Each structure stands twice: as structure tokens, then as C-alpha cells.
Amino acid sequence: MFRFASPYIFILLAAIPALIFHHRRQRPAPAMAISRINRAIPIKPSLAIKFIWIVPVLKYTAFALMVIALARPQWGTRQIKVLTEGINIILAVDVSGSMRALDFALEGKRTDRLSAVKAVVADFIARRNGDRIGMVVFGTRAFTQTPLTRDYNALLFVIDRLEIGSAGMETAIGDAIGISIKRLKDVKSKTNIIILLTDGQSNAGEISPEIAMEIAAEKNIKIYCVGVGSRGAAPFLVGKDMFGRDIHRNYQVDFDEKTLQKIAEKTGGLYFKADDTDGLRNIYERINELEKTEVKLKTFAEYRELYVFFLIPSLMLLLIWTTLVNTRFLRVP
Question: Is the pTM of this model over 0.70?
């Protein structure tokens, strides 16, 4: 990063036009007057006379370089250090088969639940500042997709590539909470939260949701539960007809709302239900407001002084100017 430490010094450059104007008005009168110059007309000007204009140019250029040197040009780097720890957030996202239900919309077009979730979660991450965020995905099994990190770009890259069924087609809510708790143990923080998003009932996994929420409560981990999707029949894409059109079929879907409410209540979090994309977005906005962190930043800067690269040429031009006006271009009254 380039900067001038004392930019107000540049006001001195305004003196150059003033000096030029003053110099032209103060030209000395000729020491000796002659009545006729006819005999001097054939005389060709010498090389020195042709280049006499360079004398004032040297002086004013030296002055301009001197002013730039006084303004202290600098080149350096600036670093920003986060002083506050922020909070640890684990996003536990359901990628089971039921997330294929087409009961959400994005930009006016019907879409599956996971696509809507990915868009909203990406916006939530973009609003955070200074927090460590990780991701756990779950279906029949649960695993860490991204450990706690402040590299939000990497996190957004991973979210964009989430696929339905990548962790199995069933739903292991207890395992998802358990893996999330393990990830939160990796990095200490005053506040640890899990945002659990699911659209189904826990029907797989080694740990029950009840045991997992007890462990979370003991470790003072707050869980926000988000139930996604509508109750009853929901459309699913089952194939295409002979004309290439999508074929949809309604299937019965449901999620265990009571268990999600119990998890949130036990751990000091909140339960939300999202029937559409706007509702889901509002939920994440509310969580964003509830879990605010004031991040303090400290800036470190290290600059290298560059004035010498202007000062030395200025002194050299000044020396040349002084030499010329006292030798070849010496004025004699």
C-alpha cells in the first residue's frame, strides 16, 4: 500500500507558478542600449542559448522533488488482527432423502428443500463477522463437512456442493448433535451454538436425540432447531415423461416437532418452523440478531520510507542548476 505521510506539504507546490510569474515580471533591464541591431541579426544563437530554458526547469523540478520528499512517500503493508474470539457456530444440515421434496421456491421457481436451505445458509454466513463456523451434514450417518473456521469463502464453496443423500437417505438427529458437540470441543469459546436444520424424524444413528441434548445441556451448548418443510403430502420429482417434462408425485412427509422443541428448550435455544423460503430466511435473520458478537479489530501497519528516492535527485538537480548559473549561464549586469 502506497501513501504520503504528510500530504498537506503538497500545498508548497502552489509556489512554483507564483515564482515563475514573479521571475518574468522582474526581468532586469538591459545594461547597455543600442540604437540598431542590424549587424547582430545574421549571428546564429549558440548551443548554450538554445538550451537556456533548461536552467529554470532544473530549479523548479528540484523544488517539486523536494516537496514530494517532504511529504514522506511510504510503501508498506497493513494487517488487521481480530482481538475478540467471536462465537463458535456449527451448522448441522439434514441432507437425507426427504430434502428432495419440492415444496420451496427460489426466485419464483419451485425448488427442493436443500437448495432453499443452501441459499439461506450462505446468506447467514455472509452476515457473520469474526465467528468460527463449521458444518456437519447428516442423513443415515453424520460427519464433519467443514471444521470450525473463519474462512467463510471456503465454507460457502462447500455449501454450494452439498448433495441430497450424500450421508444416506434416513435421518440421524442424535448423531448430528453428537458430532457437532465434538467439533465445538476442538476450539474453546465463551459461546457455543448449534443450528440444527432437519425436515424429518430421527430414525437412524447410534445416539438418540434425548441423550445428545443432555450432553449438549451439560456442556452449555445452545441448540437452535429449525424444522423445514410442510406437513402431510409434498411433491417429489420421480422422473420425466416421453416429452421430457418432469413427473411429480406426492408423498407423505412429516417431522418430529415435539423432539425438536424439547431439544431447543433443554439447551436454552429456540425452535422455529419454516414452511417456505421467506420463512426460513426470517428464521436465520432472527438467529443472526440473537447471537450478535461485537468484534474489535486492531490494525498493524509497517511502512518503508521512500523520500530518499526523491530527495537525492532533487539535490543532484539543484547542484547542476547551481553549477550552470555560476559558470556557463552566469548573468553579468
Answer: no
Residue 153 φ/ψ region, left for φ over 0, alpha for ψ in the -120 to 50 degree band, beta for the rest? alpha
Considering the domain 84-290 in this protein, what is its CATH number? 3.40.50.410
Per-residue model confidence (pLDDT) at position 261:
93
Q: How far apart are CA 5 and CA 76, in angstroms?
A: 12
Look at residue 79 in the predicted model and tell me its pLDDT.
61
C-alpha 251/C-alpha 253 separation (Å) is 6
| Domain limits, CATH 3.40.50.410, in the chain | 84-290
Which pLDDT score is estimated for 192? 93
Residue length of the chain:
333
Mean pLDDT, range 6-13, rounded to an integer: 90
Of 161, 132, 123, nearest to 145 by C-alpha is 161
Least confident of 63-67, 223-227, 239-243, 287-291: 239-243
CA 311 to chain CA centroid, nearest Å? 38
Are 19 and 60 in contact, with CB atoms under 8 Å apart? yes
Spell out the residues 6+ positions from residue 90 whose beta carbon is closer than 8 angstroms to its own: 133, 134, 135, 136, 148, 180, 183, 184, 192, 193, 194, 195
User: CA torsion, points 90, 283, 296, 299, in degrees to nearest 10?
Assistant: 80
Nearest partner of 175 among 221, 136, 217, 227, judged by Cα:
136
CA distance 162 to 170: 16
**Cα separation, 172 vs 138, whole angstroms:** 6
